[in-house]
Amino acid sequence: MASSSRTDSPQASVWLAGKPVPKRKGEAEGGALDLERIVAATIRLLDAEGLAKFSMRRLAAELGVTAMSVYWYVDTKDDLLEIVLDGINGAMVVPDVSDEDADWRDQLRLLALEYRKMLSAHSWVTQLLSRYLNVGPRSMVFSNACLVVVRRSGVGEERITGALSAVFQFVYGFCTVQGIFEERARASGLSEDAYFKQIMAQIAVRDDFKESFKEAADLVESQGGLTLTERRERDFAYALETVIAGIEAMRDR
């Protein structure tokens, strides 16, 4: 049985190992087991409990099998998480990049929104993206669509990766911050809005915060009764339009 974590170089990837994924197929006690079922159970566990609590033993218990049964399909925990990451990427919708009449701005908006939807639905994905190469076949469909769309914007070849970074690192950062705040709210036992109001109330009575936090407090007050979800939608939409407008401005400079 393979060990549960990768020991070779950090650049190694299940997709670059030169072997089929999964390597073998077998039967598990309690019914047939396949990679699709393993991936689905992994996603359910990660959504419910997060990455820190995930283990192959926990997964096996969820599936009602032994840990050895899971290792018939994947060599290591890292390999499984890479496969799961690629599966999550495969759920994103990509535009028809062969449509020469399509507006590249609309297609880039769609890609950014799909990326955000994926990261927001599965907050643990941001941690996997910082850990693995993400070069699986489904992930590359999305990446290639992004390249085609930005190339059609007319920016120079030397600026394409910069334009992609502006869009998708913005989305990644936006969703990472959102995920951290959501986790803090869950840990407090409060809704996000209740948790936010609690923090603001605590700050309001602190003399040492009155001056340094004044601008932020005034901004929050000026926004009225918007929920955090409403603020995020507004802020994300404006920020994305700013990034796209910036790509156009830099293209024409």
Quickly describe the structure.
This protein is mainly alpha-helical. Helices cover 63% and strands 2% of the residues. The protein has a two-stranded antiparallel sheet.
Structure characterization notes:
This protein is mostly helical and 253 residues long. It has two domains: 14-89, Homeodomain-like (Arc Repressor Mutant, subunit A); 104-189 and 223-252, Tetracycline Repressor, domain 2 (Orthogonal Bundle), CATH 1.10.357.10. The termini are far apart. The protein is flat, with a radius of gyration of 22 Å. The model is unreliable at 1-8 and 26-30 (pLDDT under 50). The protein contains twelve helices and two strands; from the N terminus they run E-E-H-H-H-H-H-H-H-H-H-H-H-H. The longest helix is centred in the last third of the chain and has 29 residues, at 160-188. A hairpin with a 2-residue loop joins strand 1 (27-28) and strand 2 (31-32). The protein has a two-stranded antiparallel sheet. Helix 5 runs parallel beside helix 8 (160-188) and helix 8 runs antiparallel to helix 12 (228-252). 63% of the residues lie in helices and 2% in strands. The protein has helices spanning 35-49, 56-63, 67-70, 77-89, 104-121, 125-129, 137-152, 160-188, 192-204, 207-210, 214-222, 228-252; strands spanning 27-28, 31-32.
